[in-house]
Amino acid sequence: MPRVSVIIPAYNASRFIRETLESVLAQSYRDFEVVVVDDGSTDATRELVESFAQRVAQPPSAVRCIRQANAGPSAARNRGIREARGTLIAFVDADDLWLPEKLAEQVPLFDDAGRVGLVYCHAERMAADGQPLPTPHPPKPTGHVLAGFLVRNHCPTSAAVLRRECFDRCGFFPEDMIWAEDWHLWLRVARHYEFAAVERVLVRHRMYAGALTSQVERAYEGARRVLETALVEGDGPELRAARRRGLHRQHRNNGLSLLGAGETRKARRCLARAFATGPLDPHVAAGCVASVLPGPLRRPLLRLWKRAAPWVPWDAADGAESPEDR
């Protein structure tokens, strides 16, 4: 049996999945299988994956393709987990890429005692054509990380490797969510296991230009739902304070994203929530001021602001928000 099962949910992924599979099969660590769950694609995804499956049919690194009716990325990942044979489960989205050393650097961080449940790494943003994009790399929390993960989701899905037993103990991806569903799972795992991290980029995460404002707002609502349901009875003041910081961050980032998209009325409402939870945040104050400026004044101000504070999620207005910015 392989040590690692790599799960790839795929829906109409023919544009990039060949490159994704090639990056996985190029791993220097070889004790793994690849399980692609074709989530009801109507393009050439199935044919492309099956061509890899025929070429790489024997261990190590065998490729399997499982087809199901379209049910969403969480359901596809959960199907892949159930079909997996490895004791470790890794995920990669069908348009992301792995560097060759990813598994080789992550797998040894799982301890024999079973304390570490999840190992992750940094991800670099890239444009649809593969060109690198500016990416912040704050340090990754390790050990007992629940408080840190209540402030933000530090773990892109394609960066995560988990013990299989985590799913038996903590449950699977929530299938009624398509935004922040990975964060929902990481918070549950963090209550029972330690996290370890490789402090360098081992994943390239593809971003798309032209994301609709509605998509940004749905991502925000998903993140709010995660945080608003994250605490349980008995959680102390440290965790409650961390969640307040996390909610403030979501209000602020969504408000600034909407401002960058020109949705000033919606931005003001969101920034007002952020001001209520963090009135001393200078970016919230600046956003409130910018939201009442006319467009010819606001747009050059935003361009200057983006250069001065590149961590602000303006890319959510120009494209999709990075998982490391949630």
Describe the structure.
This protein has 326 residues and is an alpha/beta fold. It folds into 2 domains: 203 residues, Spore Coat Polysaccharide Biosynthesis Protein SpsA, Chain A (Alpha-Beta Complex), CATH 3.90.550.10; 113 residues, no CATH class. Helix content is 43%, strand content 17%. The chain has 13 helices and 8 strands. An 8-stranded mixed beta sheet has the order 3-2-1-4-7-6-8-5, sandwiched between helices. Strand 2, helix 2 and strand 3 form a beta-alpha-beta unit. Helix 8 runs antiparallel to helix 9, helix 9 packs antiparallel against helix 10 and helix 9 runs parallel beside helix 11. The longest helix is centred in the last third of the chain and has 24 residues. It is globular and about 60 Å long. The C terminus is likely disordered.
The helicity comes to: 40-55%
Lateral strand order in the biggest sheet: 3-2-1-4-7-6-8-5
Structural class: alpha/beta
From N to C, what is the helix and strand string? EHEHEHEEHEHEHHEHHHHHH
Terminal Cα span = 36 Å
Measured on Cα atoms, how large is the radius of gyration? Answer: 20 Å
User: What percent of residues are in strands?
Assistant: 15-25%
The number of distinct helices, counting runs of at least 4 residues, comes to 13
Number of domains: 2
Q: Average pLDDT value?
A: 90
Q: Main beta sheet, described? A: 8 strands, mixed
Q: Can you tell me the CATH architecture of the largest domain? A: Alpha-Beta Complex
Query: Looking at this structure, what is the CATH superfamily of the largest domain?
Result: Spore Coat Polysaccharide Biosynthesis Protein SpsA, Chain A
Number of strands: 8
Low-confidence stretches: 315-326
Examine the coordinates and then state which fold CATH places here, giving the name of the CATH topology of the largest domain.
Spore Coat Polysaccharide Biosynthesis Protein SpsA, Chain A
CATH class descriptor of the largest domain: Alpha Beta
The rough form would be described as globular
